What does this fold into?
Amino acid sequence: MKKIQVAAITSMLIVGGFMGLNTNAIVSESGESKADAAHHANSIERITWEHAGELEAQKGFEENIGTAGVLAGSFKDYLIVGGGANFPYESVLNGGAKKHYSDIYVLKKEKNQLTMVEHTNLDHEIGYGSSITTKKGVYYIGGSPEAEYGDDILFLTIDKNKKLKVKKIGELPFTISNGIAVEKNGKLYIGFGQQNGIDSNKLYEYDLKTSKTKELASIPGERVRNQSVAQLLNGNLYVFSGGGSIAYTDGYKYDIGKNAWSKVASVEAGGEEISLLGANSVQLNKNEMLVIGGFNKAVYDDAVEKLGTLQGEELAAFRTQYFNADPHEFNWNKEVLIYNAQKDTWRSIGKVPFDAPCGAGLVSLNKNIYSINGEIKPGVRTNAIYSGTLLHN
It folds into this structure.
């Protein structure tokens, strides 16, 4: 087995990008009052972060510059991560082509380090699909630049010989990317993003036993909803933010039994609404989800408008300024946010001590969460992995 160096975080942005940082453990402290902290005594109040390593180079490349839109999940004591996309040949500013990957990595935590157990390759490239971690294994839905594979439902496990097993267990009647997916009682709930290459607000149920797909009630609000965050909480599907020509901050609950949507609290912290477009989330318990990342709404909205309307020298000047800006100028969300479905409330437990990520993999394993690769500014990714230890009061 091979030790890997960890250098992490993840993120993504308009026209694509991702990034990472430091090896010292850093604590994200809660900004709550003592009274509020006591109220949340049984909840996560802070996270200690440390640099966990880096992924080795993909097949055919000398180095791994980080990817966004990765497959990411956990099975028993293993992390499974891979695929995703970056710009290895030329920058976005200079018209660089986006490259997807077929590489899959199996990692295991040993003595506060991540050890490489296996590095293998699928028979096709993947990226920007939806990952679902369950006790039985990891599902990966859609997310391939090749139409032949963009409707696949894959199931990944680790056998007793520590070898990755990947099985295609079904197909959707459409390709999907940049969408959402959760699992409940043997059924997958899949939706939004691009379906057959077209922006969609439609939600579907896929029955793992019968392999049948059924259309459900569409999410209210915007008809375009890409790169939202979603989790199953208290048996219901919760969906927040995402975006299209603008970034959203709204939230909705889907009652699976009633096939009905209702509005829930918009995303906010410190009295300010926050976009989670491009962020990622993990379930903490039956009531709570934790979210890291998200494009800044004002910066994103302005960039989409200008990149779509400016022409000639004005467009060239804006693109040069935009893609050469430092990560901090994009003001991506650094708040570590927790949503409580029972109370319908958001709170922050501090900020990540590294460049805010988008399009990163976010995985829960035992008492840790792992932020894996991602984009730190448009077109730029990181190869770093960060480990966060969840601490209660």
